[in-house]
């Protein structure tokens, strides 16, 4: 097999009187590539070959990005001139391959993923000259390391079974300015083609967050997969780079809906549309500080026995005690839990500090049967307002059009 002559092609703006000079520049770079058995370094954007015959049939190959501190976050591109590429293989320092697509005319190859920060890539390209002569070219480049790394916290957990209102939720360590670029790398797949959309918000913690929720509650038994191909994506100013991908899969359990009527002071659990159990409860004392939120809240976690301190939610020294069978509904401190000290008000009056309280026996039953991701649909004239979209998983308190409007790709 004869060797392919390789070297960088310099892009020249050609004016009518400069055409001859431009042609000379291209010929010069091609001639240089045949000297000293190799050609210019990859730092200049060229791919190295093994020499050439200098007969005008050689294939010139360029690789971008190039250099020892190349810019990450862009696809790798390999281009051929005076011939075509027949195959391209790009690998990182661990031997992992960066796959891509060869154009129909064989002139260009583009990777499907972006070059990631702090990584050395090796490029091997097989070529064919216009007269049919085969050859090969080699190059390498290294991307600059990330000056800041952005990380992700996600819910629900991998390999879990959750209720029908559970969204996919990602919270980022640092700001995400390039929301559209990040959202393009997030793919949710379902076993039954569930329609849904991403929506951006500020998490209760103040960090950027994006959730994916279906148009309607999930169908029981749905298999859900998140493929977040974020590696090599720039968050934007102040956010840093993502340097890994994220994957998770979960399953939707039974259709359970908990309905809380704070006018009637009763809680009802429905499963598959049928009532399973109903019992008396007491909600928040009417008022802007102690009233309960209305709207759809989602079981975020089953926390068991916890210590509740009113100072942590801005209510001074109103209470400081342990509670059993606690299930978190909002970040602002709303729980469903046992409240035996409030027994005189169950089914009669709302006299809590905002939580939904019930007897020990009823709380134990609910804790056993409710799942993370189950919706609590709360209503009542004595509530203090609708729960915010970012206060827990308040996603369902927006209608479908309002929710889709939160996507960065709309």
Report on this model:
- The protein has 410 residues and is mainly beta.
- The protein folds into 3 domains: 16-142, Immunoglobulin-like, CATH 2.60.40.3780; 152-253, Immunoglobulin-like, CATH 2.60.40.3710; 256-397, L,D-transpeptidase catalytic domain-like (Beta Barrel).
- The chain is built from 4 helices and 24 strands.
- The chain has helices at 19-32, 179-184, 360-369, 400-404; strands spanning 60-64, 75-81, 83-92, 100-102, 108-114, 120-129, 134-142, 152-155, 160-162, 168-172, 186-190, 196-202, 208-214, 223-228, 246-252, 256-261, 266-271, 274-280, 295-298, 301-309, 320-328, 335-338, 356-358, 375-379.
- The strands form 6 sheets. A 5-stranded mixed β-sheet has the order 18-17-16-24-19, with no helix packed on it. The protein has a 4-stranded antiparallel β-sheet with strand order 1-2-5-4, with no helix packed on it.
- A hairpin with a 4-residue loop joins β6 and β7.
- The two termini are 53 Å apart.
- Mean pLDDT is 88; it is low at 1-44 and 50-56.
């Amino acid at each position: 097999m004869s060797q392919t002559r390789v070297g960088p092609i310099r892009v020249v703006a050609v004016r009518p009187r400069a055409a001859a000079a431009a042609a000379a520049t291209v010929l010069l770079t091609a001639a240089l590539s045949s000297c000293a058995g190799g050609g210019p370094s990859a730092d200049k954007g060229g791919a190295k070959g093994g020499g050439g015959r200098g007969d005008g049939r050689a294939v010139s190959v360029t690789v971008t990005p190039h250099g020892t501190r190349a810019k990450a976050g862009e696809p790798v591109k390999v281009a051929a001139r005076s011939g075509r590429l027949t195959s391209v293989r790009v690998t990182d320092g661990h031997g992992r391959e960066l796959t891509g697509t060869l154009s129909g005319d064989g002139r260009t190859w583009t990777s499907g993923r972006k070059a990631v920060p702090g990584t050395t890539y090796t490029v091997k390209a097989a070529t064919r000259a216009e007269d049919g002569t085969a050859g090969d070219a080699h190059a390498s480049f290294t991307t600059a390391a990330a000056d800041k790394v952005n990380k992700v916290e996600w819910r629900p957990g991998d390999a879990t079974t959750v209720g029908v209102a559970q969204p996919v939720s990602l919270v980022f360590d640092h700001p995400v300015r390039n929301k559209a670029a990040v959202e393009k790398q997030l793919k949710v797949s379902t076993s039954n083609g569930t329609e849904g959309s991403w929506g951006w918000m500020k998490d209760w913690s103040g960090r950027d967050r994006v959730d994916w929720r279906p148009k309607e509650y999930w169908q029981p038994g749905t298999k859900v997969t998140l493929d977040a191909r974020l590696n090599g994506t720039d968050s934007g100013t102040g956010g840093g780079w993502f340097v890994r991908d994220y994957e998770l899969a979960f399953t939707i359990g039974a259709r359970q809906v908990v309905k809380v009527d704070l006018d009637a002071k009763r809680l009802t659990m429905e499963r598959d549309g049928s009532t399973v159990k109903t019992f008396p409860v007491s909600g928040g004392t009417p008022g802007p500080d102690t009233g309960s939120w209305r709207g759809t809240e989602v079981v975020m976690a089953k926390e068991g026995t916890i210590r509740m301190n009113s100072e942590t939610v801005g209510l001074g020294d109103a209470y400081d005690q342990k509670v059993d069978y606690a299930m978190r509904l909002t970040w602002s401190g709303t729980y469903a839990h046992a409240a035996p000290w409030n027994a005189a008000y169950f089914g009669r009056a709302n006299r809590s500090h905002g939580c939904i309280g019930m007897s020990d026996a009823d709380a134990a039953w609910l804790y056993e049967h409710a799942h993370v991701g189950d919706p609590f649909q709360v209503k009542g004239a004595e509530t203090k307002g609708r729960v915010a979209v970012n206060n827990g998983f308040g996603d369902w308190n927006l209608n479908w059009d309002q929710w889709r409007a939160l996507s960065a790709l709309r």
